[in-house]
Amino acid sequence: MPDAGPFIRVPSPPGYSGRLRVVDGTPTDDPTVCPGYLTSLPEVIEVARGRLHWSKAGPAAIGVADWQHDPLAIGIEILEGAVNECQAWCFDNPEKK
């Protein structure tokens, strides 16, 4: 992926109807988000903290009884998938020295 500068494309949430524009030669209505802004959102911070506790002691550590429907547990699963995807990309594209 070419350097996107300070903003990244994120998938459109259901029902989003942004303005259509061309990114890398492809029409899209996906919003662009500054990663610094995104990672400072309270919801993202809460999920990141929950993930840390979850990784140490499992669902009981964050007080999740119904992990399949709990928003925090769902957020942790999404974050875990994103972390795994990033780690896989880093493994496949090592830094050249």
Question: How would you summarize the topology of this molecule?
Answer:
Layout (H helix, E strand, L loop, with lengths): L7 E2 L11 E3 L2 E3 L3 E2 L1 H5 L2 H16 L13 H22 L5
Helix pairs in contact: 2-3
Mean pLDDT: 75
Which percent range fits the helix content? 40-55%
- Uncertain residue ranges: none
User: What is the chain-wise order of helices and strands?
Assistant: EEEEHHH
Biggest sheet strand line-up: 1-4
Please give the largest β-sheet.
2 strands, antiparallel
Distance, first to last CA: 20 Å
What is the overall silhouette?
Answer: extended
Topology, number of strands = 4
Radius of gyration: 17 Å
- Helix and strand content put the structural class at mainly alpha
How many separate domains? 2
Number of helical segments with 4 or more residues = 3
Strand content: 5-15%
